[in-house]
Amino acid sequence: MRHELIPNLRYADAARAIDFLCDAFGFTRHAVFADDENPAIIHHAQLLWEDRMIMLSSVLDSPFVHGGRITTVAQAGGATMSLYLIVADVDAHADRARAAGAEIFLEPVDQDYGGRGYSARDFEGNVWSFGSYDPWAAA
């Protein structure tokens, strides 16, 4: 299934974010467009988790950033959104994330509304939740 809504994140260290998100959360690289002169600057990257995509970039000055008032978690002083990803084995996913350096701030737990889930921060403080609860499934 192709998803039309694609989260777009901004990282101070986008090159490290790509490595972290792949190692900790299981994303894979779909496309990475680094600067020709400075490969640490990521103009645009697309990462996949099964059939889902996120996009990210380095902190760059652009009309889009100014117009959208887009900032990093550090610049904002805290996360302004969180991302949720459905995973089959929540505990194994949490173990992988923890081993790769993710800060697990809510350990895996069965949820009252169904499924099991946990929440973590990546190394720049973006908030991620992972769970077996599928809001698309029939109630």
UniProtKB/TrEMBL annotation:
Signal peptide: none annotated. InterPro entries: Glyas_Bleomycin-R_OHBP_Dase, Glyas_Fos-R_dOase_dom, VOC_core. Residues 2-133 form the VOC domain. Gene3D superfamilies: 3.30.720.110, 3.30.720.120. This is VOC family protein. The lineage of its organism: Bacteria, Pseudomonadati, Pseudomonadota, Alphaproteobacteria, Sphingomonadales.
